[in-house]
């Protein structure tokens, strides 16, 4: 099962929508249009305030009915992702006031924006049998085969995050085939799967001996553990635990009076 196939040319030479399935069932055309627009927003191709292609342009681009495009845009408006201005067009909505813990931040970009060097060391990319905890999080049976990756993120040569990730192969069957020297696992997933739900939980913990070794820290030092789950159309995509030395990393936000984030 392939969640996203490369765009194919239609008989008229127009790009077709990616074909996607969830739990073996084909996804409706309007949902595929929503996925296409959502991916563009999530990967930064379209930013808050950018004008989207018109209904006519989307109909011509993908060779589908205007009714299909209109339903996709209406549902995106209802979800707060898109704003429609009568007689003007559709635009990417501004982010609503909320903690950046509810967003997936590109760590590499965040570090580079500070003028620092970023590096990522992949330690593991493999298939494993899902434990009870992982199976419950990804809604698969215990012992089912799932993808597992582990990597360390560095800022100016200092490890600041140990990422331990499990991925649902029903949604992302080609995860292990990616070259993660070119992009982080999180970057690949954001570009590939248009998530529509995120859950974040932050805990204060002490690292294990192995975790402390990977993060080049004392095992007695506290860490911040960010546990994230994402879903697409109510289907779990990934469970990831991001461990940060508390002395090197903090989570927080700053907002203007209008509610727009100023920094993270």
What's the SSE blueprint?
Blueprint: E1 21-22, E2 25-26, H1 29-42, H2 55-62, H3 66-78, E3 82-85, E4 89-92, H4 107-113, E5 118-129, H5 132-138, E6 145-155, E7 158-167, H6 185-192, E8 197-205, H7 209-214, E9 223-232, E10 235-245, E11 254-255, E12 261-263
Antiparallel strand pairs: 1-2, 3-4, 5-6, 6-7, 7-10, 8-9, 9-10, 11-12
Helix pairs in contact: 1-3
Q: In short, what is this structure?
A:
The protein is of the alpha+beta class and 264 residues long. It is built from 7 helices and 12 strands. Helix content is 24%, strand content 30%.
Q: How many structural domains in the coordinates?
A: 2
Q: Strand arrangement, largest sheet?
A: 5-6-7-10-9-8
What is the ordering of alpha helices and beta strands? EEHHHEEHEHEEHEHEEEE
Task: State the oligomer.
Answer: single chain
Strand content: 25-35%
Give an overview of the whole structure.
The protein is an alpha+beta fold and 264 residues long. It has 2 domains: 21-92, Winged helix-like DNA-binding domain superfamily/Winged helix DNA-binding domain (Arc Repressor Mutant, subunit A); 100-255, Chorismate lyase-like (Chorismate lyase), CATH 3.40.1410.10. Helix content is 24%, strand content 30%. It contains 7 helices and 12 strands. It has helices at 29-42, 55-62, 66-78, 107-113, 132-138, 185-192, 209-214, and strands spanning 21-22, 25-26, 82-85, 89-92, 118-129, 145-155, 158-167, 197-205, 223-232, 235-245, 254-255, 261-263. Strands 5-6-7-10-9-8 form a 6-stranded antiparallel sheet. Strands 1-2 form a two-stranded antiparallel ribbon. The chain has a two-stranded antiparallel sheet with strand order 3-4. A hairpin with a 2-residue loop joins strand 6 (145-155) and strand 7. Helix 1 crosses helix 3. It is globular. The two termini are 38 Å apart. Mean pLDDT is 82; it is low at 1-13, 97-102 and 255-264.
């Amino acid at each position: 099962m392939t969640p996203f196939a490369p765009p194919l040319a239609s008989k008229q030479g127009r790009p077709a929508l990616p074909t996607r399935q969830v739990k073996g069932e084909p996804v409706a055309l309007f949902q595929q249009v929503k996925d296409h627009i959502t991916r563009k927003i999530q990967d930064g191709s379209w930013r808050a305030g950018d004008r989207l292609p018109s209904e006519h342009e989307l109909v011509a681009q993908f060779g589908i009915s205007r009714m299909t495009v209109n339903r996709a845009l209406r549902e995106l408006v209802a979800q707060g992702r898109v704003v429609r201005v009568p007689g003007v067009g559709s635009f990417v909505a501004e982010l609503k006031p909320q903690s950046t813990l509810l967003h997936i931040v590109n760590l590499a970009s965040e570090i580079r924006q500070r003028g620092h060097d970023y590096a990522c060391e992949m330690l593991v990319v493999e298939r494993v049998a899902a434990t009870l905890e992982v199976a419950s999080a990804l809604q698969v049976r215990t012992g089912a085969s799932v993808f597992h990756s582990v990597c360390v993120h560095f800022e100016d040569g200092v490890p600041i995050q140990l990422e331990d990730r499990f991925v649902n192969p029903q949604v992302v069957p080609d995860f292990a085939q990616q070259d993660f020297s070119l992009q982080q696992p999180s970057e690949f997933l954001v570009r590939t799967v248009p998530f529509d739900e995120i859950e974040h939980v932050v805990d204060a913990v002490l690292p294990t001996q192995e975790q402390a070794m990977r993060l080049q820290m004392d095992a007695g030092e506290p860490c911040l553990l960010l546990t994230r789950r994402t879903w697409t159309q109510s289907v779990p995509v990934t469970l990831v635990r991001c461990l940060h030395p508390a002395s090197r990393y903090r989570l927080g936000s700053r907002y203007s009076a209008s509610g727009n984030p100023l920094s993270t």
